[in-house]
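Give me structure tokens for this 432-residue protein.
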Amino acid sequence: MKKTLSILLSLLLIAGCITSNTVIANASSNSTKRVVTYFPSWGVYQAGQQHITVDKIPWDKITHVNHAFFEITSDFKIQTTDSYADFENTNFPHAAKADWNKYPNTGYPEGTVFGHFGEYKYYKSKYPNVKILISVGGWTRSNMFHEAASTEQNRKTLANSMVDVMKQYPFIDGIDVDWEYPTETRASEDQYDRGCVGGPEDKHNFTLLLKTIRETFDENNMQDKLLTVAVSAGASKIKNTEPDKYSQYVDYIGVMTYDFAGGWDKVTGHLAGLYLNPNDTTRPNFDMDDAMKLFRDTYNVPSNKLLAGSPLYSRGWANVQPGPNGDGLFQPGDSNFKGNLGDGGQYSWYDIKNIENAQGWVKYRDPIAKTPYLYNANTKQFLTYEDKTSLKERINYINDNNYGGLIVWDSSGDDVKNGWPMHTQMYNGLIK
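Here you go.
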């Protein structure tokens, strides 16, 4: 999957044939690792997410992009959560221009696509080896999975809908199922959140759903289309599914090895600790190493099918006392700390760089968990996040244990204007 862009451009320059339609090919590589970045479709509206659009995705630094999110309708079909942004917006950089003389009926040739998906179509022509997937569900749109998975008829309807979408948009390479979470019921948190409905039958029905989707792809000569899942890294949620059974139907499993700690907890901790610090008595065995080993060693999932997660955002707490070490770690706190992405100290990674150098903030590193944290003794605020050093540790861990790569939440958190340093580090460390 390695892209030798510089070699290709040199050859094209010599040949004198660089044009606006140049295909940027992906050269072969011995690496089987993946760098999967999530693209938040709503980020176009959010300053905290840099008003991100598809053309801002670091296409030469990833192997896969997951479009977040589609949802499941009441009749068990998938649909966009934002039709305008995904299919109608004509203001994106590569949107087709109307030619009423050539196309008198509509102004556009048949098959023209606008919105984010029009941009995907364009970039797929430039980066044909980058896989584009539609991610279904997520935290706010998992409400219909329980019913959709409950009968074979419903499962088949959903799977056929996925096939129909990929037939309509053949540049889409697969589906990412992000059911958060099987067996669990929770109420809606705000006007954007649909909550989730669950029951004990979800444990096996999740496996059956993935089996039906895979078989339906194959029946429609879509053996090359990918089926992936994003799953919890928490043991209590993992045991509510059957990784040893469902793993055979998916191309890889994205283990969300982040959100181990956040403002919902009453004690500070690490957002994405690589290892468990035994002083963290609030979250025993809630770390990347324990999660990945649980899938690999207990459920016998092949290591190359397991992708760890990297967060390009922070979590935080307010009203945190220094504690015995003066750094606020593993101390009581609350979520009354608003960042540029929301409550609970949520900042994009590119903003954290500025906070690191802001007055009053001190940076620390947990030598056991291998992750950084920031504490401000004046404001009593605490932040946990990923930095380049912890990312290097994460990449080394993946390589040393022959895991399949990284999923990244999300693309908008990187420093878009200054070379995508985090995605670059991921790509160089895993793919090159």
